[in-house]
Amino acid sequence: MSDTANDLFARLDRLNEIGAALSSERDLGRLLERILVAAKTITGAEAGTLYRITEDGQALSFAIALNDALGLALGGASGQPVEFPDLPLYDAQGQPNHALVATHAALSGETVNIPDAYIAAGFDFSGTRLFDARTGYRSHSFLTVPMKNHENEIIGVLQLINALDPTTREIRAFTLADQRLAESLASQAAIALSNRQLIDQLETLFESFIRLINLAIDEKSPYTGGHCQRVPELTMMLAEAVNRTQTGPLADFTLQPADLHELKIAALLHDCGKITTPVHVVDKATKLQTLFDRIELIDTRFEVLKRDAQIATLRRLLDLRVPQDAAAEAACWESLKHELAQLDAEREFLRTANRGSEAMPEADRQRVREIGTQRQWRSPEGVETDFLDSDEIDNLTIRSGTLTAREREIINHHIVTTIEMLEALPWPKHLKHVPEYAGGHHERMDGRGYPKGLTREQMSVQARMMGIADIFEALTARDRPYKPAMKLSQALGIMKKFAANGHIDPDLFEVFLREKVWLRYAQAFLDPEQIDL
């Protein structure tokens, strides 16, 4: 077999390898660069440019530009932007622009193979000559190939410059074999690029839909909407910190880009079940709050008791047998004053109890019960009844926070709903762990969490990350209705106790501290007054 045939077969094998590699590339920028590098490789080109059709379909934009002789690499992994102006496909009158070889290829769908640009007729190479004059380069042979996808739609143009003889390295014209290989590659590349764009569009649509769900929760309750946005940010900060870790138990644990994407989706969806949680429970800022704060009803009852006390005093004064008995009259007024003061004190006490606290003393809880059962008032139906009903007493004697045990169950049930919602979806392979990651953020390392009571060994590292992010965000949130914004020192103190008592993963929390994830998050999302470290 001749050397020429061997070379062709080798290039065909290379073309097949390239096609497989292109179909597996997830990053759009790297995909574009790989397409151009592959085209240069199989044709022996010294330089090349990859153009993409702009979104409005009116021009070609420079996506990647490479020139080995000049050491030029723009776009792609280089990090250097391609600052050349777009090439218009139509002139000011809307007529197709066939003057430039690249725009002609895009408009006609035809490959253009030019042995020498300086003597070629029919195309405007003035821009090329200006570039050559400025750089000292000599653009000679051109191979310009339109990129057609599976729908026969042109999505870009591949332009190769200066084919080099593999032996002498002298510039030569692109051969027919070069052209056929480039056309085959352009076709494969166009399909890979279209698929990648479609996948990116679907992923963007999916993420937008998730954010729409969070927006719905946000509109339903401003106190949880911010949480749904901040927990993913903190989760990804922690994930990136773990990836940077070089020592300790997590030194060998690394999340690849696909893993990070899966974790991000899970974090965005971790509280989607809250869309079913009643607003009056989520937003319960005081113990008596339902659709409104029922402390106002109790205020009204106190006013009724005060009115009744005043009426009773006036009746006693009228019933005095000796109106001129000043001492008895003074005693009546003094008794009324004392009773009104006691009622005001009890009202203020109940208002304070209604606001909730970290730990309500048992003596205060007992006082609520005594006020509720030992005082009587006449209801709107005219019935003499206890001042507080059993539901009001249960709420006002909540030991910590503002939620009853039943309401906490309702809040906690959101994670069950989240898991049920997510497990019902047909997740693709690269997102199959989303339900597990999202559903594990209320589990504890010691198995005392919910809903499944998993232990540390039964949980993925990703789910444990989300647990830390969820708790730290909740502790430091400044938009909760039932507590003031917590300072960093206090929040970290609580987190350290959680790490020690089996609530959160100690290894991840050590990374959280060492890499100062807490500080990066605080600087981005907390009020300056909260940052006291």
SS class: alpha+beta
* pLDDT < 50 runs, ≥5 residues: none
Rounded to the nearest angstrom, the radius of gyration is 37 Å
The number of E-state strands comes to 10
User: Strand percentage, roughly?
Assistant: 5-15%
- Give the SSE string: HHEEEEHEHEEEHHHHHHHEEHHHHHHH
Sheet bearing the most strands, described? 8 strands, antiparallel
Termini separation (Å)?
75 Å
Q: How helical, in percent, are the residues?
A: 40-55%
Which word captures the global form? elongated
The total count of helices amounts to: 18
Average pLDDT, all residues = 87
Question: Can you walk through the features of this model?
Answer:
The model has no long low-confidence stretch (mean pLDDT 87). The N and C termini lie far apart (75 Å). The longest helix has 45 residues, at 176-220. With 533 residues, the chain is of the alpha+beta class. A hairpin with a 4-residue loop joins strand 2 and strand 3 (72-74). The chain is elongated. Strands 1, 2, 3, 4, 5, 6, 7 and 8 form an eight-stranded antiparallel beta sheet that branches. A two-stranded antiparallel ribbon has the order 9-10. The relative contact order is 0.08. Helix 1 packs antiparallel against helix 2 and helix 6 runs antiparallel to helix 18. The protein has 18 helices and ten strands. It has helices at 3-24, 28-43, 101-108, 126-135, 176-220, 222-244, 257-268, 279-282, 295-319, 326-354, 362-374, 390-396, 405-423, 434-439, 461-476, 488-500, 506-514, 517-525; strands at 45-53, 59-67, 72-74, 87-88, 112-114, 142-148, 154-164, 171-172, 376-378, 384-386.
